[in-house]
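Revision sheet: structure tokens.
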Amino acid sequence: MPPAPQGRSGPGIVLPDGIRPGDGRFGCGPSKVRPEAVASLAERAGDWMGTSHRQKPVKEVVGRLKAGLASLFSLPDGHEVALGNGGATAFWDAATFSLVEAHSQHLAFGEFSSKFAAACASAPHLDAADTVESPAGTAPAFSPAPGIDAYCHPHNETSTGVMVRPRRPEGADHAALVLIDATSGAGGLRFEPSEVDAYYFAPQKCFASDGGLWLALLSPAALERIGRLSGSRWVPASIDLSIALDNSRLDQTYNTPALATLWLTLQQVEWINGNGGLEWAASRSDRSADILYGWAEGSSYATPFVEKPDERSRVVGTIDLDDSVPADQVNAVLRANGIVDTDGYRKLGRNQLRVGMFPAVDPDDVEALTRCIDHIVERL
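Predicted:
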């Protein structure tokens, strides 16, 4: 049994074994990695780790990963899966060179949507980016205008727990691309691939792996623009999406990837596909979200941070606590009892819990988490 919490956690509280979750990892990135996936990596340590990423064993895994993602997302003909190193942050920089032609518009409603907007705004070869903002916990809407060639927003704003359904803006230019940062949504939220041109993500959330890798689902229009722009402007090789595409078509990356990340991502993709695909995974996260938000709505001291139910994320739940219940104390007691990473996003600065509800997280564990929080609050 873990020791009683100390310091800022307030009174020493030990959670009874009967109410604890089976797995205490609720982080929003890196997220819970399934033990079965880690065990499969350990079994392959001798012939996988420390081998060349340009040889057949690794290229076969990359090929399986690409095929698995194409199946998971039911990609239409002509769409391709690409991958490269650096995570979604690197993809933002790549997009300023290879996907945004001159003028982009961004929905900014949290930390990560604002960062891509800032990347485009500071790119000296682009026109000043349009940014449509709204307060944290809400979602803005596009204001289409002639000349805007890229519309950009996250599927799921990880910092606030706001979810926005990807779709083409009405009134946008015919050739405009829709670029969706799906880092915390891909694999746990439903979407229609025909509505977007680049749906890109890192695998440390719904895909229960480590970071440092980006993957992107690219439409024919996105592929055309990548080829055209990369041939007309200087692009650093490490973030040139045309180079990334050339290597992806060979089932490899331009520079050396983390083999453990590739392996764990593949295990999660095949686990989801083997259980019923995206609908199964999204339904599993739906159950977790219904448990968490239902508990908060029925609580005397907790409230869902996102006011509109249809904007509440199904994979990242943000819950405000009454000022009489210090979230830092609740989180400290949880951590001392082996339940970790339920802290609110640091820059948001609210008295808040943030709970990862990705497909790897068992909905029964989310329900157990709510019981543990009630147990703690009753004793603070």
